[in-house]
Amino acid sequence: MNTPNSLTLKRLAQKAKHYSYIGIKKSNHLSAAAGNVLLDRYFHALEPLTDYRFDPSRYRRSFILREDHTHMVSPENIPAEVPRVAYAFWTGNNPLTPNRAKNIDAMEEILGVPVKLITPDNLDEFLVEGFPLHPSYEKLSLVHRSDYLRAYLAAYKGGMYVDVKRPKGNVAGLFAQFDQNPQLWFLGTKHHHNMDVAHMSGKLGWDLKKFHQRIPANGHFIARAATPMALEWMREVNRLLDYFAPQLETFPGNVVGDVVGYPISWNRLLNQVHHPLCLKYLEHTQVTDELGYPEQQYR
Predict the structure, then answer these.
(1) Using CA atoms, how far apart are residues 115 and 162, in angstroms rounded to an integer?
(2) pTM score of the predicted model
(3) Three-state SS across the chain?
(4) Which of 27, 67, 245, 270 is deepest in the core (most CB within 10 A)?
(5) pLDDT tens column, 2-36
(6) How far is it, in rounded angstroms, from Cα 37 to Cα 222?
(7) Contact yes or no for 224/82 (Cβ under 8 A)
(8) What are the Cα distances from residue 106, in Å, to 101, 114, 150, 160?
(9) How far, in whole angstroms, is CA 22 from its chain's centroid?
């Protein structure tokens, strides 16, 4: 394969920015889409040629610079090994749809590990002693409850998270990678497009897009508990809920959080926290195409 030269990359970047600018200026979705396609080509060409090193001076105002998490760990409660179990969340009292009920029945056989469905009825059994849920948890939308529990799982339980969708295949080999490499903290599905990562401003937003192929997704993932990355994820989500708590009392969420006055935007508790931390701890993460779904099942 021919290595792209710097002039080719520069032209791709210029075209991508041009089309994106036109799309924003004229509200032209086709132009914006063309710009993002070109950005993907630019980043995919650049990716093999570029190493990432975390530089705090690039993100001087970001939460990812906070690292005081020593008080958050109780070693006797946190497993050192990654438990071979998959967790799925159904955070409301609304019944499972027929397709999702079928997926639950098939998950354990496909994945090759035990699957535990966490619901409001058994949530207390899932919690780790000494680490209660945030007081505002019950005020969150059902979607944001799931986002919260993903951070909780990564911080205090370890293991696998799966959406309530039919998974792709057996994951025994992926768990084995954690046994072989103690420095592997998080493994998730690969992002193939720059628009799939969290949209953030400044240099952090640009770096997320630039290295999107190396940032693991969180739809399906396997995590090692009590790592700095996982604890900072949980801490930041709790900090955000401290901030939003007064408004959540007045405007609690519904299923998807589209209630007027509900203060938390769609990805505020998940991608906008998790993706920057993946970038910070990139050397401890891994991406794969072996997780995920053979097809999307939304209903």
Answers:
(1) 9
(2) 0.87
(3) CCCCCHHHHHHHHHHHHHHHHHHHHHCCHHHHHHHHHHHHHHHHHHHHHCCCCCCHHHHCCCHHHCCCCHHHCCHHHCCCCCCCCEEEECCCCCCCCHHHHHHHHHHHHHHCCCEEEECCCCHHHHCCCCCCCCCCHHHCCHHHHHHHHHHHHHHHHCEEECCCCCCCCCCHHHHHHHHHCCCCCEEEEECCCHHHCCCCCHHHHHHHHHCHHHCEEEEEEEECCCCHHHHHHHHHHHHHHHHHHHHHHHCCCCCCCCCCCCCCCCCCCCHHHHHHHHHHCHHHEEEECCCCCCCCCCC
(4) 270
(5) 455 655 656 655 555 554 544 444 445 555 676 67
(6) 30
(7) yes
(8) 9, 11, 21, 16
(9) 30
**Pairing of β 159-161 and β 86-89:** parallel
pLDDT of residue 257: 96
Of 208, 223, 228, 82, the residue nearest 149 (C-alpha):
223
* 276 against 74, higher pLDDT: 276
Token digits for 19? 């089309």
The CA distance from 240 to 147, in Å, is 13
Name the residue among 28, 29, 53 with its Cα closest to residue 211. 53
What amino acid is encoded at 297 in this protein? Q
**How many residues comprise the chain?**
299
Residue the block writes with tokens 């903290």: 185
